[in-house]
Every structure is written in structure tokens, then in C-alpha cells.
Design goal:
With 184 residues, the chain is an alpha/beta fold. The protein has a single domain, classed as Diaminopimelate Epimerase, Chain A, domain 1, CATH 3.10.310. 49% of the residues lie in helices and 14% in strands. The chain is built from eight helices and five strands; from the N terminus they run H-H-E-H-H-E-E-H-H-H-E-E-H. A five-stranded mixed beta sheet has the order 3-2-1-4-5, with helices on both faces. A hairpin with a 2-residue loop joins strand 4 and strand 5. Helix 2 packs parallel to helix 7 and helix 6 packs antiparallel against helix 7. It is globular, with a radius of gyration of 16 Å.
Length: 184
């Protein structure tokens, strides 16, 4: 998405402000624990993986390049190995907090079974909850909706292993944030 100078400057400021340690965090540590528990619980129903990433701000290099939330989600999909699940059924839920952007990137097998329109519907529902400042509720609903698709197309099988961590990855300008730092 091409931005004019004002939009780019405004976005840069939002990311700078969101990345400071004084910014209010929409996902305090208790919320992160509930997201992790939801992922672990739902993964008992299917043979697939959900990876949840919250990014509090992009670094200035990515901002100057005009990187979109979708581009960043694709980058993280590769970096975190979500693409490398045994049955090609990993799903990344990515939240870029200052842009209020949500992206779902699904590996080829689950994406082919579900389709782009359904992923967009889940993102829209999540965005609606975020618009009401119901970040945890929107996230938990999205996890359940993704899990429903995974369980329908990839039912659990004997010997399933957990290929990716269940805990949310929290980033600030591309750097991991400890749980202590993630809260307000």
C-alpha cells in the first residue's frame, strides 16, 4: 500500500509511541497465558499448528520501506517455521498493534481446504472485537474458528507431536519481548 507523506509520518509516530515501554499493552501477561492455554487445548482436537504473534511496533527500517502487516506476517511465517509442519497445515495469526492490523497466513494444505475468504472473515470478526477493546475475546474467538477448520480438515491422529510452541510470540520492533515486559 502506497502512503502519502502525512500517512507515513503518522504511521511512524504510532509505531514509535506503541513501542515505548510506557505504551498501554492490549495483551497483558494474563491474556497471553489464556491465549497459550486456548491454543494448547484446541490442538488436542486436530493435527495442525496455530502460531499466534503480537507485534507492538515495527522497527524504523521496515517502516521506511513501507512494509505492510501482510508482508511482515509472511516474513514471520517463514522465520518461525510455520510453513514447515509435517502436513503443511500451520496457521499464523498475526496482530500488528499500532496499525490495528490482523493477518492470517495459512500453509498450503489448510489454505487450500479453507480458502482466502474464510480467513478474511475470521480477521474481520477479530477486528470487530478489537474495535471494542476486546483484544483477548477477539483473539480467543479467532483461535476457536481456526481450530474448527483444522479439526474438520485435519482430525487428530495417533502419534501427533506439537511442532510449534503454543505460547504467543510477542515482538517489539522485531525483538522478542519477555512476558514481564509484555504487560502494562
Amino acid at each position: 500500500m502506497k502512503r502519502n507523506g502525512f500517512e507515513a509520518a503518522h504511521r511512524f509516530f504510532r509505531h514509535w509511541r506503541a513501542g515505548t515501554r510506557f505504551a498501554a499493552r492490549p495483551f497483558p501477561p494474563g491474556a497471553l497465558e489464556r491465549i497459550e492455554a486456548a491454543i494448547a487445548q484446541t490442538e488436542r482436537r486436530y493435527d495442525g499448528e496455530i502460531c499466534f504473534v503480537i507485534e507492538h511496533a515495527l522497527d524504523w527500517r521496515r517502516l521506511l520501506r513501507g512494509m505492510t502487516a501482510h508482508e511482515r506476517a509472511c516474513e514471520l511465517f517463514a522465520q518461525l517455521g510455520v510453513w514447515d509442519t509435517e502436513r503443511n497445515n500451520g496457521v499464523l495469526l498475526y496482530v500488528l498493534v499500532p496499525d490495528r492490523s490482523i493477518e492470517i497466513i495459512a500453509d498450503r494444505a489448510i489454505h487450500q481446504a479453507v480458502g482466502e475468504a474464510e480467513w478474511k472473515t475470521i480477521c474481520s470478526r477479530m477486528e470487530a472485537e478489537f474495535g471494542k477493546s476486546r483484544f483477548l475475546e477477539g483473539s480467543l474467538e479467532a483461535i476457536q474458528l481456526v481450530a474448527n477448520h483444522l479439526s474438520r480438515h485435519f482430525p487428530v491422529r495417533e502419534g501427533k507431536t506439537n511442532e510449534l510452541p503454543d505460547s504467543p510470540t510477542v515482538l517489539d520492533r522485531g525483538n522478542p519481548v519477555s512476558e514481564r515486559e509484555a504487560g502494562p
